[in-house]
Design brief:
two-stranded antiparallel ribbon, 31% strand, 147 residues, 30% helix, Nuclear Transport Factor 2, Chain: A
Amino acid sequence: MAMITNGADKLVALETRIRHFYESMNRHDFTKCYAMIDPRVVSKSEALTISQYTHSLERYLDRFASINLVEIGITGLHLNEPNKLYEGRDFALGKTVWEDDDGNRHEFSERWVFQDGAWYTRSTGFVPIHSSGHTAEKTDNSDLRTQ
C-alpha cells in the first residue's frame, strides 16, 4: 500500500474508503464493515460486538434493501489539528447522499478518523426508522442522523 502523506492523497483515500464501506455493506460483508470502525471505539469495553453490529446492518438492509450511492461530499478535512474528541488524530466530516431501492433519497453525515495509514468510520450502527418520511438513522459517538 502506498504511503498517504498529503491532504489530496488523504481525501482520495477517504472517498475510496467510504465507497468500499457501502459496497461491503451491500454485499452483506459485515465483517469487513466492522473492521472499518475506529479501532479506539471498538477497543472500549462497552463497545458493540461484531454480532450486534451485524444484526444492526442486517435490520437496516431489511428495511432499505441496499444503499445506492449518489454522492460523497467531504465538508471538512482536518489535518494536524489538535482535538480532544478524535484524540489528536486527523479527521474528516462529510455527507453521503444515497437512494434506497424505491428511489427515495437519504443523507448520512459522515465522521471518519485517520489512524495507522487508513480511514475509520465513527459509526457504530444503523437504525431503520419506519415512518412515512423514509427517514433513516446512522448511529455513532457523535449522533449522526439522516433525513
